[in-house]
Amino acid sequence: MKKTLIATTVAALMAAPAMAADITMKFGHVGAPGSLFEASVNNFAECVGSASEGKIEVQTFGSSQLGKDKELLQKLKLGQVDFALPSSVMSSVDDVFGIFEMPYIIQDRDHMRRVQGAMMDKFQSAAQENGYYIVGLAENGFRHITNNVRPINTPEDLKGVKLRTPNGAWRVKMFQEYGANPTPMAFSDVFTALQTGVIDGQENPYAQIASAKFQEVQKYLSITGHVYTPAYILASDKTFSSHPEDVQTLLRDCASKTQDFTYEKAAQLEEELLGVIKDAGVEVNEADKAAFIEASKPIYEGFAAEVDGAQEMIDEVMGLAQSG
Question: Signal peptide span per the entry (predicted)?
Fold first, then answer.
């Protein structure tokens, strides 16, 4: 099937062996070398190249080379980039994606699979209404807090801590509720801000913490697991729909395979990278998750009050946690 999948698109061009690729696509992301983002994007690019027998080349650009998250979202619409891998920033695109900003709402990857299966139409509609198309899902992961002030055991320990967050309104509200002083900031600016003391800490999955070398400029890691953030293999709806149907199918198929790869890789990295962070001399503690869950109630209440249909989404996601 793979060999004939895009035959109608490239049959005439296959007689021209001098061309390295007949279609070239650019994939920009903010992940550093060694990050889960880099591994996921590279896996997608390799799948597309293989499945198209080299007729489609996905060129990858990490470390914000083609722009930070918000810039990449704009470049997608302008047709300057074909794919991006946004995560938390999607909650600023549409309130529907704010569901993944609710603390502790996603239990594990199997739960995320069920949410995806039941609710993907809702997320896709929200993306398309804003000019985007979700080719597939990957992962950013379960997020934990690092800082230079003190170990974080309960939300009270965050009082006054200057904490970097991604550009998402609900993440800011969450940490305000916990008592921190949250500051939205592009991922590429975080290391220097930590190093110079502009901020005290940040929150990210181990794969982002270790690949960005935050362990070199942070004293404490508190295992909170406060939010699970998916990542979105995102395209412009206009650009994606302009491709022939067989090319669209190939891209969606590779995105699905990349999700499988990403989940396996992420689970592996969670074990390996906690050790890397500890070995760098960072003091690690297990936070009191029950205290964080209790302190999170106002965030759910605010989301339900401010966003149409939010309570129904919350109930559906929580129901799917219990159905597995």
Answer: 1-20
